[in-house]
Amino acid sequence: MSTQSASSILFTHSSRQQGFKLLELPAELADLLTSKEAPTLELKSSLPQQPTTITTDPENREYVNLCTPTKTYLVRQVQSSNSIHIIRPSDSGVQRGDINIVGGDEDDGLNLVETMTAIAKCGSTLELHTPPEGFSAVPVLERILPVYDEVEGAEQQVEVEERGDLIRRVFADVPVSRAQCEAGWIELCAFVLGCGGSGEDVAGWCRRPSAKVKLDVWRRVVEGAVLQGIDLGKQFLVQDLWRSVLDEGEEPFPRALFEGVVRRVCEVGDGRIDRACCTQWVGETYLEAMAPTTASSIGRSEFLNAWKDLLPESWRDDVAFSKLTVSRTPASLDYSLHWSSIIPRCYGI
Fold this sequence. Notes:
alpha/beta, elongated
């Protein structure tokens, strides 16, 4: 039987192995990184709540997320059943006397230029995972931002540039993408108060209003719009709406809070209120403020009437249980309602 000779490549093993981590990229992320305008990626993790406490709760375990400007991926380690070797062409420093040839003849005249060297061995890889429910900044922002439950005194004037810097520094501790941080900020009607913070705790300069405060601001907006003849269903100037809520020139609440509430119910890039989104938000916010638990449930008729009273006159017919994000079908609801019977929904921006 005839045999054929074939050229072989000498495989060597470096005595000092290097440390490598292999990261498997999803196709859409690989395409993004190889595009002409590849974005900067961030590795982000949540601040530890209690560094001295050991917990087995999956929600509190340490983790790291890889973030693009718009998406978030959970980085997780996957063990491999097969060893993965990282190899590279050997340089001219490899000497024949430094290697042992296995299963061959040292006089085969091997060309050291064609020698490959294993410089690392990886027993696991890192992969990027996106859970079915996705990611949201709301839970983290709810934890780190103080609640604004009543007027805390005069608002300290903060320049727009400084306000933006404070918000960016808050987002740095939220382990999701910038776009998702902004969506969560808008969802909570969060704002920069400009007082009450000190040192490096930038979150102390910011607030998230309670449901009661958000409801009070919205009620004042509707009343002011009626008095000044502003149609909330059409385009309007935020400055005009702000003037309509002033009490003889006095600010009833910080303007940043007012802007946070208006931003929450406005359409993206448009100076008008999203009617459907706003109607639902008002109903859910009322329940959160007035009936947060089963012990404080309110009657369905009472709820519907109060909900209608918080909307512009032409919107009253939009009120219906089907507008709520309920955990049960409206027909199966009891004769009383409370906040825990609905599931808050995060809206995109």
